[in-house]
Amino acid sequence: MVSPWIKKGTVVSAPNGPTPDSEFEHSSIPATIKKMFNLSSNFLTNRDAWAGTFEEVVGELTSPRTDCPEVLPDVAPLRSTEANEHRELSGFQSEVVQLAAVLNGDHLLSSFPDELSNKMNVKEAHSYVNEAVSRFIRASKQAVKLGAEESAIVDMRSSLTTRPTATKSSLIRH
């Protein structure tokens, strides 16, 4: 981790629990937040409960460090050419589309997962993923306004009738 809230030069190799075989991994972040803020809700998964936490590292300073660089080097572009928006999806891109389908409820369709991403090109997948995430965030905010717990996870259902007209990459094969 890199943070102005961590002592300069700090390197941590292994966690001190919560179990003898705990490790630092992605679930360490929600586990640390739960522990630092004394949240009473249950862990989302057993993996979160098992993960090592960073509260000892983050909690050592009472104010953020101010020795940060004032000028950062230019960042090299990730690629030297523009994306080929009409190209077929890579395996990873297809998996991202499938994750987005779960966010907006399309995983409940009979065409999931095979037909969903196989019919999209890069441009269509980009649009689909952005819309799925936006829809999920809007629905989550609306649920809180209607009285849902802020920690509740919205379970979306597919609603193809309320979305813009599908492109040639329709989700349902005729």
Task: Write a brief structural summary.
InterPro entries: Alkaline_phosphatase_core_sf, Phosphoesterase. 35% of the residues lie in helices and 0% in strands. The chain has 174 residues and is an all-alpha fold.
Q: What does this 3D model show about the protein?
A:
Residues 1-26 are annotated as: Disordered. It holds the Pfam family Phosphoesterase. This protein is mostly helical and 174 residues long. The protein has 6 helices and no strands. It has helices spanning 28-36, 46-50, 55-58, 91-104, 114-118, 122-145. The longest helix has 24 residues, at 122-145. It is extended. The chain starts with 27 loop residues before the first helix and ends in a 29-residue tail after the last helix. The relative contact order is 0.11.
Separate helix tally:
6
Distance between the termini: 50 Å
- Poorly predicted sequence stretches spanning 5 or more consecutive residues: 161-174
- Please state roughly what percent of the residues sit in beta strands, choosing from under 5%, 5-15%, 15-25%, 25-35%, 35-45% or over 45%: under 5%
Classify the oligomer: single chain
**What integer is the average pLDDT?**
84
Percent helix among the residues? 25-40%
Please describe the structure with a list of short key phrases separated by commas or semicolons.
Phosphoesterase, 6 helices, Alkaline_phosphatase_core_sf, mainly alpha, hydrolase, 35% helix, hydrolase activity, acting on ester bonds, extended, disordered C terminus, 174 residues
